[in-house]
TrEMBL record:
This is Cytochrome P450 90B1-like. It comes from Iris pallida. Belongs to the cytochrome P450 family. Keywords: Heme, Iron, Lipid biosynthesis, Lipid metabolism, Membrane, Metal-binding, Monooxygenase, Oxidoreductase, Steroid biosynthesis, Transmembrane, Transmembrane helix. The keyword Chaperone does not apply. It is a single-pass membrane protein. SUPFAM superfamilies: Cytochrome P450. Its main location: membrane. It holds the Pfam family p450.
Length: 486
């Protein structure tokens, strides 16, 4: 029996050695076929370095995965991520080059499970075709986030929704900022996209389904009953049914509809040539894009402000000066002119997005062989552009780990611009909703700083997993400014 056991051990040892040799040969051949690839390591067979790459890390840092490899290989290196060869870039110059040349030399890459969740016909964020992307971007920019809609519908709805929500908080209570931000943004978006009102049964049903849907975006895409991904897929279908129902009402009403204002779905029915399925997917993507991303930015801003009382005071003074304090009828309404005067508020937003890094990276795929700084990016290779690298580079931003909104304030009293600030992406796919996100953040912060002091109820630091999030929902204790004066 001992001889048999020893034989088994020997066979297993030989097998391990042979597998290792084969892997080394495969890696060597891959490296040899692209001798100009950046230095790097492919990691384990099949898995590559995916597990290390996906490991959660502080949102306000590059994370261990990047820091270790940058110290060894430099700002541009090769790896094997998500089952394929990849080039990872922490070089702001290469990142700008990739983003500026999207739809020429590069295209967006999304894992297959993301395509299944959103649909591949028309979603603005995941479109890869040049013509299709331009078509749907023009619809969003030309009809949904127009300057006139920002100045009227979005501004008024955001100010009203934020005021209604924050005024409902009880003095001395503990509030989950993550939950509050999601509720606020969802209410604003569904009203403008679908004409649905807060508190309606159908609105609350849609809210519930979107919450389930969002849970499947960053989970392991294993589709079995009860898994987060399976729940997300089912929620997608329920979301579609609700949007189809609203769409049907608009189509039946047609020109005879008597409405106080036109929402986006009505415009699409009357003016676009999109199919019902395309309209449904587009609206789903738009609501998700705002509700999921900006709802991460608002808690980050409140987290950073909670450890910077000086910034809270200056923010409060600016809002009191620009829009005034409460009147007998409640807070003064936010006007577009007032919003545009909120210079320090925009500095706070910029610094929140720079340091918080809601989305640390964007994944692109080379559509042709590309050379950059002597390196070759082979056709079909995925490029992981770490836009957060520029945000955290001490040669570009002084003391990058420090929350310092004043770094964005120029001597002329206006907000500075910086080519290395890429929180909203860049190039042809620069986020079309950037100004909307800023407006919504400003409206929420306005009502918070004019009504409450706050502090962290529990330790809860932002983690990138892979998007920035607060594991505990960022609970804060609030105290009314009115009661604190007595």
């Amino acid at each position: 029996m001992e001889d048999v056991g020893a034989g088994v051990v020997l066979v297993n040892s030989v097998a391990v050695v042979l597998i290792a040799i084969v892997c080394l040969i495969v890696i060597a051949r891959r490296r040899g076929s692209h001798s100009k690839l950046p230095p790097g390591w492919s990691g384990w067979p099949l898995l590559g370095e995916t597990l290390s790459f996906l490991k959660p890390s502080p949102a306000t840092s590059m994370g261990n995965f990047m820091e270790l490899r940058m110290s060894r290989f430099g700002k541009i290196f090769s790896s094997n991520l998500l089952g394929a060869q990849a080039i990872v870039s922490a070089d702001p110059e290469l990142n700008r080059f990739v983003l500026q040349n999207e739809m020429k030399l590069f295209e967006s890459y999304w894992p297959q499970h993301i395509w299944k969740l959103f649909g591949d016909r028309n979603n603005l964020g995941i479109q890869t075709g040049v013509d299709a992307h331009k078509r749907f971007r023009s619809i969003v920019v030309g009809a949904f986030v127009t300057t006139s809609r920002l100045q009227t519908s979005f501004l008024g709805d955001a100010d009203e929704a934020a005021g209604r929500l924050i005024s409902s908080w009880k003095d001395g209570s503990v509030v989950s900022v993550v939950d509050a931000a999601k509720k606020f943004l969802f209410d604003v978006m569904v009203k403008n996209a679908l004409g649905m009102e807060t508190g309606d049964a159908e609105t609350e049903k849609l809210r519930s389904e979107f919450k389930k849907f969002c849970c499947g975006i960053t989970t392991i895409p294993i589709n079995f009953p009860g898994s987060p991904y399976s729940i997300s897929l089912k929620a997608k279908e329920n979301i579609r049914r609700i949007i189809f129902s609203v769409l049907g009402e608009h189509m039946r009403a047609g020109e005879n509809a008597e409405r106080g204002r036109s929402d986006f779905i009505e415009w699409l029915v009357k003016n676009s040539s999109l199919s019902q399925e395309q309209i449904c997917e587009l609206i789903q993507g738009i609501v998700f894009a705002s509700e999921d991303t900006t709802s991460r930015a608002i808690p980050l801003a409140i987290y950073f402000l909670s450890i910077c009382p000086k910034a809270i005071q200056q923010l409060r003074e600016e809002h009191l000066h620009v829009v005034g304090s409460e009147t007998e009828d409640g807070p003064s309404k936010l006007t577009w002119d007032g919003y545009k005067q909120m210079v320090f508020t925009q500095c706070v937003i910029n610094e929140t997005l720079r340091l918080g890094n809601i989305t640390k990276l964007l994944i692109k795929k080379a559509t042709t062989n590309v050379e950059f700084k002597g390196y070759e990016i082979p056709r079909g290779c995925r490029v992981f552009t770490y836009i957060s690298a520029g945000h955290m580079d001490p040669s570009l931003f002084e003391d990058p780990p420090v929350f310092n909104p004043w770094r964005w304030l120029s001597n002329a009293g206006i907000v500075k611009t910086d080519k290395n600030f890429m929180a909203f992406g860049g190039g042809p796919r620069h986020c079309p909703g950037a100004e909307l996100a800023r407006l919504q953040m400003a409206a929420f912060l306005r009502h918070l700083v004019l009504n409450y002091d706050w502090w962290l109820a529990e330790d809860d630091e932002p983690v990138a997993a892979p998007l920035a999030q607060f594991p505990k929902g960022l609970p804060i204790s609030i105290r009314s400014l009115t009661s604190s004066k007595h």
